[in-house]
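Input for the complex:
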Amino acid sequence: MNRSRLEPLGVPTSGYPADSAPERAALGVPTAADRWIVRQLTSRLGDAPIDVVLWDVPPEKAQPAEGRVTVRIGDRRALFQVLVNPELHFGDLYSAGRIQVNGDLLTLLDAAYRYLDARGVPGWLRRGSRLAPDLADSKRNIHHHYDIGNEFYELWLDREALQYTCAYYADPSMTLEQAQQAKMHHVSRKLRLQPGERVIEAGSGWGGFALFMAKNYGVNVRSFNISHEQVEHAREWAKREGLTDKVEFVEDDYRNAAGAKSPRYDAFVSIGMLEHVGPGNYRALGNLIDRLITPEGRGLIHTIGRDWPEPLNAWIDKRIFPGAYPPTLRQMMDIFEPNGLSVLDVENIRLHYAETLRAWLDRFEENVDAVRKMFDETFVRAWRLYLAGSIMAFVHGKLQLFQVLFARTGYNGVPWTRAHVYEKA
Amino acid sequence: MNRSRLEPLGVPTSGYPADSAPERAALGVPTAADRWIVRQLTSRLGDAPIDVVLWDVPPEKAQPAEGRVTVRIGDRRALFQVLVNPELHFGDLYSAGRIQVNGDLLTLLDAAYRYLDARGVPGWLRRGSRLAPDLADSKRNIHHHYDIGNEFYELWLDREALQYTCAYYADPSMTLEQAQQAKMHHVSRKLRLQPGERVIEAGSGWGGFALFMAKNYGVNVRSFNISHEQVEHAREWAKREGLTDKVEFVEDDYRNAAGAKSPRYDAFVSIGMLEHVGPGNYRALGNLIDRLITPEGRGLIHTIGRDWPEPLNAWIDKRIFPGAYPPTLRQMMDIFEPNGLSVLDVENIRLHYAETLRAWLDRFEENVDAVRKMFDETFVRAWRLYLAGSIMAFVHGKLQLFQVLFARTGYNGVPWTRAHVYEKA
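Predicted:
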């Protein structure tokens, strides 16, 4: 894989820790002030099994006792940076190896979230984001994350449908593959897809769900995506599956889906795209849906969300998902309320995303040598932190996962109950 | 029943139509202007099978053809009033008999809702109500509606649990009694009530649900209600059922539920009370729930709602439910967002309320002579219109019925899926 692929990540690779004794000596002995900062940092972590050591401890000696985690801060500037803005700087320092974590990274992140929780940030006081990326912003943002290489994602996503969104562990013993299939059935059942119906999808990913719907529910799908690499992959896949007559992948922004002569669709579906839309564009999205679906049409939006408005973690926004924003249910109502759409069903499956991410992280680690070969150690650490941090964000309820089913206000052909979603297939 | 009970309804009983020929003559012959107004009114009803006649047609001759409805407007002032503000005046004029409807009232109301829909009122432009009744307001409002006599409600509510809230027709062939039992099971299953748990209920009604939970799920219930007649009825009922050790009915405002020494509850539940709380009080309600439930606590709010903010129908607000306000989901988020509560599940069962109201209206008509004897014809007509109008409001999506299940943000003992709600008992 081309090394230029790494560029979008942009983590500074210089400034690696001084690992040899002479270089350590050049850093100087930690002062009383340095030790005081360490005590401030550790006191914030409560009684978590975390030990923090500084650059005077050689990396090979910074090993944790059983069940504990040792964090080694490799230089004074790193120490100051993590004190000033841990949310933003920890990620880069960890990625660059200037902060090392020996022991279970999840234990450290768990303690960090407990600390954040306990601090009681009055997140609901913050103004909701009016983030409204335009077509060019979106194109750039999506390219940053999704175009870093299909081969990379294939190393750790489920092998059957390449779903880079929350799975549904209908039964907790499911494999990742089974849980992703279950997620796609869950969404299709909520939408009650019928053979021959027309479905429009906003955000195709690598095409797995569009092809799944066509194959398993006999619908015709038109699916929009602005990630060039993903669309190419999806089109190839449709050919291999012999589904090019049922599924069309359009390399364009979903905002261009309603042409003058565009057909009306029986269902609108979007899995894991709303995070990239921005609250300032929600009303326009709802207006688009209103123009896209038939009077009997219905829709489902599956998205990461929040219990109260809060910007995305600063480091994730800078390095991993620029411009992403997980909305609250209140913010999502901008899609429905002004556009005559009626919410039928909201399900929050937050803990399923923690499970999904655990499975991804396990496979990522199993394939870490291949990832390192594709990119480098900085990339490996950044993605490890992103996956592990996301697990803990879902475990601690900093992030939610909402599936919102809707139809037009006053349309009476809606399901009488939700029992059909839970009937044995 | 004491006739003074009628007073809260306050419909003017004077001004009945002139039914004898001499009185009709005194009203004068309808003019060309009168006829023009009639044409304006009927044109608004599209091609609905509605005929409007005026006071020159004797009541006994104002009979509709098969499948049609004849509306007889009994005097010129009634005609002007219904032209100026049909939403407010039609109810009083119909109740007083100054407007008569011969044929199916539902057909007329259906046409009225179609007309309202077609007018495309941009309801989402309206500001949401900041309605915030205080304790005294609430006491007065609740007295107006719920204290008009238990015997009256017993004539047409379900006979087993006296539920004056939306039933759940798990199977459309259910009787009203079965559907109310199913509603109570549905709510209890969503809350996963366990024997020995402590439940707090805001709004008892006549006590049916509190007693149901104690009997069927083995929980201890403390239930708040400010309707004196309802609390007395509930306490008697608890005695008859031998459940006074499991269920306590408190005649007080739910806002007084959290005393200094009050216990923590495993579950908070409120069925059909939020309509009387007022959006301006939602944040305080959520704060109260936060103080009432344990860290592992969960809650469910069942309420009439809206797809976009709109005040209650003016006539219903004036004559039937003063101070009532059905919120949007966005408005409901004031309960959860500022108070660290996480929405797990929202279900909209709007059409079940239309079914429930149909069953109520049928039983009301079966017992209409008894109702007339308790009150008078004005009361009968007002309640007929209220029940029939509510059916059409739910059928046309002007009203929704939301069940919102929640727990604390970050609490991980929540159900893994919703399948348990749909398992056979």
